[in-house]
Write a structure and sequence with these properties.
It is built from 15 helices and 15 strands. The chain is of the alpha/beta class and 418 residues long. It has two domains: 82 residues; 223 residues, TIM Barrel (Alpha-Beta Barrel), CATH 3.20.20.70. The strands form three sheets. It has a nine-stranded mixed sheet. The longest helix has 13 residues. The protein binds iron/sulfur cluster (SF4).
């Protein structure tokens, strides 16, 4: 058979991002957020696969150009400024096109083989620490038994105990010269910590942003601890019993202390509507956090799961997509220290060690090189690894760990396909 002369170059723009999986292909305009999805039985799918393997440029013959399917594909990519064709008369040699390719100098594998590359600078990867001073909350609510595994939250446990002050000192001296973005101080009821005043005095001496988590029932305690009030100290007041809240009082507290922020933990649509109503009446700095109690799946599916519209509206830069393909931006750089000194990259995973017999730098290195939390991407879990949206969707969240399912979405293939 006579080989057809390729008279044109079909090319994609460098800002186009391709995700090609077994059944679908996505081409995404990282400047405008436009997305096109094609099934694997389409000509477009084959073309994108070819473009992907050829630095975004492939030769096209006259007869291919006359093909109706090819023309529709070309029309679409032109319409969304994703690519075009050029005649070979302009360039007989294959034009060079920048396709997104990332060069990670110090990837995890390389660093594992040569730890010296970490350059004793491992602390730079630490972005934030949450430390539990105790776990006795004395609040009549079961939420605090396990909510801390869904979001940063106070905790109530049968096995009580305060964090050893020596461990707290060890932790603080390990991070005091770092540039971490925040230090969350949680309990239990932190006001009951056995060396509370000494702990606050020490924490006040480090320049980092501190977020003290307090239950609504103990908000008045702030008045008894003026040493806590400083520019660097925020107070996150968590509230689960929405119906018992005195909203005018909350406004009053916030007017007196601008660093108070309220977090409402909600479980159903009634609580949500009370809050929406109250937020209209009061000018409160607050956020609303859903709590999964094992029975409110439908509330989650309506309010937390991604629906078709959410996914199609996601707009990410190509860099952020790349980032999500190598690490979990929710978890990366975060450590949790429980009251027994154990340290976690994510509280759903195994502990990386305990501060009673390890240094914080060693534990950061352990999580960085061999831990399972910071680098857990969607491309590592089913079904996301087979989905073209794996780097567009938000990173794996604690809700997904709680649900033991990695696709809290309404992805129905047919609804996304052109
Ligand atoms: S959550 Fe997973 S399966 Fe659902 S759309 Fe995102 S990547 Fe795909």
């Amino acid at each position: 058979m006579k080989k057809q002369t390729k008279n044109y170059w079909l090319f994609l723009e460098p800002y186009a991002v391709l995700r090609i999986k077994k059944y679908e292909a996505l081409i995404y305009n990282s400047l405008s957020g436009e997305k096109l999805v094609f099934n694997n039985d389409s000509l477009a799918f084959q073309l994108l696969k070819k473009l992907d393997g050829n630095n975004y440029v492939v030769g096209i013959s006259e007869s291919q150009l006359r093909n109706k399917d090819f023309q529709s594909f070309l029309e679409l990519i032109k319409k969304f400024f994703l690519g075009d064709i050029v005649s070979k008369k302009l360039s007989d040699n294959k034009p060079f096109q920048f396709s997104p390719e990332y060069n990670i100098q110090n990837n995890r594998k390389r660093l594992r083989m040569n730890k010296d590359l970490l350059n004793y600078n491992i602390i730079q990867y630490l972005r934030g620490v949450s430390v539990y001073l105790n776990t006795s909350l004395e609040v009549d609510s079961e939420i605090y038994l396990d909510a801390y595994k869904q979001f940063t939250c106070l905790r109530d446990e049968d096995k009580k105990g305060d964090l050893s002050f020596e461990i707290l000192v060890k932790l603080i001296s390990g991070i005091e010269h770092s540039s971490i973005g925040y230090l969350n101080i949680l309990g239990g009821n932190i006001f009951n910590y056995y060396r509370f005043d000494e702990a606050i005095a020490m924490l006040n001496n480090i320049p980092h942003q501190k977020n003290y988590y307090i239950h609504y029932n103990f908000i008045e305690n702030l008045k008894n601890h003026p040493c806590l009030i400083s520019e660097q100290n925020n107070f996150i007041v968590q509230i689960e019993d929405i119906k018992a809240v005195n909203f005018p009082e909350l406004t009053c507290f916030q007017e007196k202390n601008k660093n108070i922020h309220y977090q409402f933990i909600i479980q159903d649509k009634d609580e949500l509507s009370v809050l929406i109503d109250q937020n209209e009446k009061h000018n409160l700095k607050n956020n609303i956090i859903p709590y999964y109690n094992g029975k409110n799946v439908s509330f989650f599916s309506k309010n937390v799961f991604l629906d078709k519209k959410d996914i199609l509206e996601i707009q990410e830069t190509s860099f952020d997509m790349y980032l999500k393909s190598v690490l979990n931006p929710f978890d990366f750089g975060k450590l949790y220290v429980l009251n027994d000194g154990s340290v976690y990259g994510n509280l759903h995973d195994k502990s990386v060690g305990n501060l009673t017999d390890a240094e914080i730098l060693g534990l950061i290195e352990k999580e960085f090189l061999n831990g399972s939390s910071w680098f857990k991407t969607r491309s590592r879990v089913k079904p996301c690894r087979n989905c073209i949206f794996d780097t567009l969707c938000p990173p794996i969240s604690n809700y997904e760990y709680t649900f033991k399912s990695y696709n809290l979405c309404y992805k129905q293939k047919s609804t996304y396909v052109n």
